[in-house]
Write the structure tokens for this entry.
Amino acid sequence: MILAYGKFLELTFDFTGKTTRKDYWLASLVNFIIVLLFAAGIDGFARILTEVALPHILDIIFAFAAMIWIMFALLFIIGTILPNVSMSFRRYRDAGVSKWLFIVEAAFLISLLVFVSQWALNGYTTILATLIMVMLLLADVLIKLLPSEREEVAAPQELKS
């Protein structure tokens, strides 16, 4: 798992190679676990700050620690955008689908931004936005689950005597 994550970070600017299913899903799992840890930390800070009666100075210290934790979470998310995009692009290439089909990934990310912004502004989102986002996510995941495309091996040339 650590080796797959090392490759994930090492190949940040490589849009020409390929990423196997195993490497893709292991790196994705590590990213998911890290994001869960950040979310759990944010939830913990929020609970302490809202539910526990602390002296004023401890309240300030916990609020400052929460802001630093959120900053690290945002830096991680922003810092892994390009490695995630390049890894997804390599996974599409490895699955043997056209690079133009990568528009599915871009459309999913745009629909996710629309979904989150609608929810943040209105407290709800439209059914159409949700449906489009879920369909694009499903298409993206199915493409990434495809087996690796086999390399065509040239037939051995007959030895000439």
